[in-house]
Amino acid sequence: MTQSLTCHLHQTGVIAVLMIDRADDAVPLARALLAGGVDCIELTLRTDAALESLRRIRAEVPEMTVGVGTILTPQQVNDAMEAGASFGVAPGMNPRVVAEAKRIGLPFAPGVCTPTDIELAIEAGCRLLKFFPSEPCGGIAYLRTISAPFMHLGVQFIPLGGVGPANAAQYLKEPSVLALGGSWLAPKDLIAKGDWAAITKLAREAADIVRQVRP
Predict the structure, then answer these.
(1) Inter-axis angle of helices 50-60 and 74-83, to 10 degrees?
(2) Which of 82, 130, 188, 201 is catalytic?
(3) pLDDT value for 39
(4) Mutual angle of helices 95-104 and 74-83, in 10-degree steps
(5) Is 188 a catalytic site residue?
(6) Which of 31, 107, 127, 158 could form a cystine bridge with 87, CB 3.0-4.6 A?
């Protein structure tokens, strides 16, 4: 991750994790999140509309920082880069995927949930890691324990999985946490209904939590 991107992620505090089925929803969804104070999103490669959604957001909502998640193959690394992704995220630590991201210059955060995962990521040159699935793995207490041996190396985490308004502030207070992955900000049912006002409300609530913890 570049220094400027890392600083931006820390400041925004919450990355909206999105699964978009229709590319036509991408721009109004991005604008709804931006109106609520969330200016960073991760578009997951779980639908055919993801990369087209990325292109449209980059073209029409340039204020939004857009990354791509669920990157599982080296080819997807290249697809994300070509579509204009600012960064990439994976659910696990695949050395081939990380190596390809490094080769083409795409800032990348692999997924980790064990000390071994963290060591492999560090060896591959990564310092920003996705802690996934956060709550099922043991939540804050577990993250605090596994991160301790690596903090002197400048490792930081983006927790995702079971994170929401009830525990967001607790995670954001952790020195090892750069930002949160917020899949709760844009539920699929609200996207399907086009309820952008409700999504703006969720984004505003999340942004308020960040401001309270990181004024």
Answers:
(1) 30
(2) 130
(3) 98
(4) 30
(5) no
(6) 107
